[in-house]
Structure formats: C-alpha cells, structure tokens
Design goal:
Elements: H1 2-10, E1 14-18, E2 28-29, E3 36-37, H2 58-71, E4 75-80, E5 88-95, E6 108-114, H3 122-136, E7 140-142, E8 145-153, E9 156-163, E10 166-171, H4 174-188, E11 190-195, E12 198-199, E13 202-206, E14 210-214, H5 216-226, H6 255-268, H7 276-282, H8 291-304, E15 311-315, E16 322-329, E17 340-347, E18 350-358, H9 366-390, E19 400-403, H10 406-413, H11 422-427
Parallel strand pairs: 16-19
Antiparallel strand pairs: 1-6, 2-3, 4-10, 4-11, 5-6, 7-8, 8-9, 9-10, 12-13, 13-14, 14-15, 16-17, 17-18
Helix pairs in contact: 5-8, 9-10
Length: 431
C-alpha cells in the first residue's frame, strides 16, 4: 500500500485541500490490487461530462496487418504501465483520503489532478493525452478510424494502432519506430513486448511466408467454461433448416448465462467469420432467451470444438486489390420479415472484413433485398478505400463488387428512375 501511495504522489495524482461545502467526495474500493475510485458514485455534469473514448476497429487491425504482411513490415507491440494514471482531469473531482494516508489537518480530502482507475472519464483522459502527444510529434489521425495514427517521412511510413493501453506499431521506417518507442517510454514508461505475438486475445504467428491470426486459447477457455470441452463435435455452426424466432418455449431462469455466452461468441468472430451468421442469429434474443436459443448456442460451441485453432491467413506474396462479395437472404426473419445482409472483403488473398446484419427496412422483393445489400457493401468499400488512401496505398486495379443476383446487376448498371424503384433511387443508387 505504501508503494502504491508513493507512486501516486510521485505522479502528482492529487493534492490535499479542505473539502468544499456541499461536495460529497468519491470513495475508493479497498478490495482491489491498486487504488480504484468508486466511479459509479459520480454524477454526470458534476464529476464528469464526456466518457467516450475511441478504440481501433477490428477491421482496421486486420487491414493493417494484411498490408504489413504484403509489405514485409516488422510488427511490434507496446504496453503502457498504469495508462489511466497519466490522464489530466478537466473537471473538479474530490476523493476521500485513502487508508494509511494521514492528513495534517482535519476535514481534508484529495482533489484529483490526474485520473484514477475507476473514474468514468479515465479512459477518455488517457486517450486525449496520448493522441495529443502523437499529434505533436508529426502523426496524423484519419477520420475513418481515430485510433489509427500515421506519420510519413518521405516515402517512409510509421503506423500506430491504439486500443486503450495496448499499441501495435508497424511500418518501413525503422528509425521512426525506434524514435516513437523512446518518446512514449519517456512520457509513459511503456513495456516493449517485442514482435507482435498476442494482442487482445488474438494469437499472431509470423513466418517468412505468412501471418496467421487465431483465438485458440480464447476458444478453448470458452469451451472449458461452458463445460463442452468433451462434447461431441458438430460439422456446421448452425443447421441450414434451423430458423430461430421468439418462440413460446420456457424462458431461461438465468438469462445472464446466455448473454455472456453470446457476447463471448461475438468477440470470437474477430478471427472466425465462419460463425458470424450463427452469432448474428443468436444475438437477436438477448432480452428474452429460451431453452431452444441456448441449445442453438451450444451447437455453435460443439462446432468450435472441431477446430479451435482455425483463424485467418495473410500471405506475404499477394496483390493489393480489393475484392468484395455481397449477398442477402430475403425475408429471413420469421418475426419481422426483414432480410439479412452479408458481405466480406479480401485485400488480395487476405480476408480483412465481413458482416452479417439484419436490414433496417422490409424489402418487398428479393431483388430489392440484394440491391440494399449491395449498397451497404458499397459503403464499406468506400470506408476501406479511404483508409488505404490515407495510408498512401494504391490498389493495382479498381475494387470489384461481386453479386449473384442478375436483377440487381441490371439495376446497378442502369440506375434509371422508375415508379417502382423511386425509393431505391433515394437509398441505394450510391452503388
């Protein structure tokens, strides 16, 4: 406890002041390994204003790693020690004196100058300080992903991906990579973890021919926690004849079990596009899951048992061209009759982005459902192209969109105003 208090004093986290009248200081949690403030007692507009802090998108991580594989760039990982203790607070936050800390005068409290773990705004303040430091040293942010930082020195490039206190660093400027490591260590005391091997539960294996991403350990832990490590494997994540809906089966007595399981499956889709559709179907029933929904979720787990180490493969030798595939399932949802959108994107031979999502409106024909799916795919194409343009990466050929519906292709090739396609002109003709 004394070492913890000494570190906080060295960091100038607070100063002792007389407790203002009418102010109720924030408490602390005494059952943690470090001093943690009780942020749940904070009041919005008084103790904090904004709490949002951006983190890098999974698609951005995969896109940058695929580029690093093709360009043969080194990839490093950094970790920041006590990241949340570095953020400067802009609001007045008072905290009761921690145990073992003796005040020279009665009725005093700690006025926090820097953030503590547990405060609502800690993550935002840390990101604000880190981003200002990087911008002051010549890095740029892209509006496509605010946690992607890039610096250009002639034809050399340095890229940082930031996910709270985990940082991935890559590029072809060896001197700049070393320089930014030194700058970050000088300000935040970082840990240089060397070549990227394990990041956000994702295992990264690098060789001369490829980079492989998987979540094997995460998947095995999921199977073990669910008690299905010895279950009989299944050949598919979900039977094609299975249609989940809000049935009249008995509700689960403890829906938290189902919600936690589906939440972990959603995170597993970071490297497992093969369970994306099944996970999307299961996530519709988080509010009131039944036994049939839980049974379908356990079927996905039995499928994962067949190959827990399956993941993504980013080859070194590949062309930089964007290929996208679009599809839809018309009126798939039995409850709302809304259609499903499905798309995926390859950068050369590397699968970098995918999604299964229910459409926001009811399509009146399979052609309309397919065309709306194509419009959503087009938006994602534009986003990926914006990221590549920001990185000054030029694909060798224009992007290609693949669609298997002939009517949709005819409408895309001839976007002529028609009475029956008036609503399509408003929503979808950006294709």
């Amino acid at each position: 406890m004394k070492h913890e208090l000494d570190a906080l004093e060295l960091n100038k986290t607070w100063r002792l002041v007389d407790c203002p009248a009418g102010v109720k200081p924030v408490g602390f949690d005494r059952y943690k390994a470090r001093l943690v403030a009780k942020g749940f007692t904070q009041t919005k507009g008084v103790n904090f204003l904004e709490t949002f802090s951006p983190v890098v998108k999974p698609a951005t991580i995969r896109l940058v790693l695929a580029l690093a594989s093709m360009k043969h760039w080194p990839i490093y990982q950094l970790d920041v020690n006590n990241a949340f203790l570095h953020g400067n607070l802009s609001e007045d936050v008072y905290m009761t004196l921690p145990p073992g800390f003796i005040s020279p005068q009665p009725n005093q409290c700690c006025k926090l100058l820097k953030s503590l773990y547990g405060l609502r705004q800690s993550s935002r303040m840390w990101y604000d300080k880190l981003s200002h430091l990087l911008l002051s040293h010549g890095y740029q942010q892209t509006s496509s992903d605010y946690s992607l930082f890039v610096k250009f020195i002639g034809d050399q490039i340095s890229i940082l991906l930031v996910y709270v206190d985990d940082i991935v660093l890559t590029g072809n400027s060896i001197s700049e990579l070393a320089a930014i490591k030194s700058i970050l260590h000088q300000h935040f005391r970082i840990k240089d973890l060397g070549p990227l091997k394990y990041f956000l539960g994702i295992e990264v294996a690098q060789s001369e021919k490829e980079i492989c991403l998987s979540q094997r350990k995460y998947c095995l832990n999921l199977l073990e926690d669910s008690g299905l490590l010895g279950a009989k494997p299944a050949s598919v994540p979900m039977d094609s004849t299975t249609r989940l809906y809000h049935d009249k089966n008995p509700l689960l007595s403890d829906p938290f079990v189902y919600r936690r399981l589906v939440g972990r499956l959603i995170y597993l889709t970071t490297t497992r596009p093969d369970i994306m559709y099944a996970t999307q179907q299961l996530s519709q029933f988080m509010a009131s899951p039944t036994k049939s929904h839980l049974q379908a979720a356990k079927h996905v787990l039995r499928y994962l048992k067949t190959s827990p180490s399956k993941g993504l493969f980013f080859p070194r030798e590949s062309e930089i061209q964007l290929l996208s595939f679009s599809d839809s399932d018309w009126a798939r949802c039995p409850d709302t009759r809304r259609s499903l959108i499905g798309y995926c994107f390859f950068l050369g031979s590397s699968l970098v982005s995918w999604k299964t999502k229910k459409q926001t409106t009811v399509a009146r024909s399979s052609t309309e459902a397919e065309y709306r799916a194509l419009a959503n795919t087009t938006c994602e194409v534009q986003w990926i192209l914006n990221v590549l343009q920001f990185l000054r990466i030029s694909p060798i050929r224009p992007p290609v969109l693949y669609c298997d519906n002939q009517s949709t292709l005819h409408i895309a090739a001839n976007p002529v105003f028609h009475e029956r396609t008036k609503h399509l002109e408003v929503h979808c003709h950006l294709v």
